[in-house]
Amino acid sequence: MPDTRSQIVEAADKLFYERGYEHTSFADIAAVVGLSRGNFYYHFKTKDDILEAVIDLRKSRTQVLLEGWAEQAHTPIERLDRFIGMMVMNSPKIRRHGCPVGTLCTELAKLEHPALPNAGMLFTLFRQWLAAQFTQLGFGGKADGLAMQLLARSQGIATMANAFDDEEFIRQETEQLRVWLRALAPTGQPN
Amino acid sequence: MPDTRSQIVEAADKLFYERGYEHTSFADIAAVVGLSRGNFYYHFKTKDDILEAVIDLRKSRTQVLLEGWAEQAHTPIERLDRFIGMMVMNSPKIRRHGCPVGTLCTELAKLEHPALPNAGMLFTLFRQWLAAQFTQLGFGGKADGLAMQLLARSQGIATMANAFDDEEFIRQETEQLRVWLRALAPTGQPN
DNA sequence: GTCTATACCCAGATAGAC
DNA sequence: GTCTATCTGGGTATAGAC
Predict the structure, then answer these.
(1) What is the pLDDT of residues A5-52, one digit of tens each?
(2) Does the beta-carbon distance from B106 to A103 stay under 8 Å?
(3) Which residue from B22, B23, B120 is facing A164, i.e. has the nearest CB?
């Protein structure tokens, strides 16, 4: 049985993703948790505080996710496949709400919100993990660039699938990503 | 000297791009135009009406833009280069506010706003124009898929450049897009 | 820790004078 | 066609009883 604060952050995380940060009100979150608006402020002073808590929650979950992939898959290519597979697994949600990281950063950029760099850290976690896989494949100085390229392509797929409400597009384009990956490192080694 | 209605749509177009649709208030737009809030409703009944007008403005401008490229560039490859060049030319704005089309669609999807399909038409205009170029290159049934791929990659570049506040990334990745394009159609013909 | 009540502000939207 | 004045609702945030 989780404590109230955790329930609030959990509900906020979900609603911020589904409806966006600004479009989610305290009342929305309170209704999900089954809490009065007044009691809300015992746990969080401002809406920005909830946002920080949500980003921190996502950061720790991302860490766990990436560590899990590193344990379960034993070659860099298999690990990169896990990243791509995540998009396919989440395709129904991506189609409806886009990428949780990308759409949050996009919104915070428009708001000129001070939490944008913190949200960007979510990208950075993936970036460094992906770059580590490319480094293990022997890409040296190109590893970070390839990580960014893979991140960017996944963002583009999510944005278009969301705009066109098209889940099949995710399946097609992730397959293309796998082809690209194999062409890049056919034997698990760089050219 | 443009009429008031045009001024309103112009100001709304700019503010919706820079701050987002929901985050822009009537007061914000009225302040730019130098109009009282009350007078606003003589020109537009609801905020959604302004959004529709903004999308229509963008659609007609996109048409003009694409027709201009078709006139100025005489080969499909040159025309596709114009599309890529647009990103480089607008890189300062993309870095700060993202892609005007992509970020609008992302926001409207979160709001479950009925204007999302209309905003998606902006993507469709580019999609069809790009597909026409790939068709001229002889790609036949693959043309639309390539158009979507190019659109998706440009969206990814915009999202990452915006999140990381990185203009250099746009320059790098658009260069990669040009390389990809040449590899795809080395002699202006498909493989 | 949780509640009700409420302050305060700003949003979208309307009425009616000029 | 533009203005001022105003309504109404919802948002964040606070005070204080239980």
Answers:
(1) 999 999 999 999 999 999 999 999 999 999 998 898 999 999 999 999
(2) yes
(3) B120
3-class SS string, B38-75: HHHHHHCCCHHHHHHHHHHHHHHHHHHHHHHHHHHCCC
Average pLDDT, stretch A156-161? 99
- Distance CA(A176)–CA(A168), nearest Å, equals 13
Comparing CA positions, the residue from A17, A14, A44, A47 lying closest to residue A32 is A14
Instruction: Provide the whole-model pTM.
Output: 0.97
Closest alpha carbon to A88 in A164, A16, A183, A168? A168
Instruction: Tell me which DSSP letter residue B23 carries.
Output: T
> Which of A23, A160, A172 is opposite residue B22, by nearest beta carbon?
A23
DSSP-H helix ranges across chain B: 4-19, 26-33, 37-43, 47-72, 76-89, 91-97, 100-110, 116-136, 143-163, 167-184
Number of CB atoms found within 10 A of residue B124's CB: 15
